[in-house]
Input
Amino acid sequence: MYYLTGATGRVSREELEQALLAQGAPGEKLMATIADEYIQIGMEKGLKRGLEQGLEQGLEQGRQEATRHIARQLLKLHDVVTVSEITGLTIAEVEALRLADNRN
Output
């Protein structure tokens, strides 16, 4: 209760207690319910944010893998520098792909 009255600044602690008692519910139980509701809202927001970040990371990883795949195909026809220029990968990244493919 102290938190709510301090956070809102519009309602005194006494007014809040009276409002809760007028509803016929024990104040502590009602406050726990309100707190649980805010916790649930926070968890839902956190989950949504985590899913969005996870999706974005997955998409980025997919783009990177597609770029590496294209680079491997281009290496069959072009030199490392040309593949680097076409794909945007560094020369070192393209060279590492070329060496890995030659090992296999």
Observations:
- Residues 2-103 form one domain.
- The helical segments are 2-8, 13-22, 27-75, 80-87, 91-103.
- The chain has one domain: 2-103.
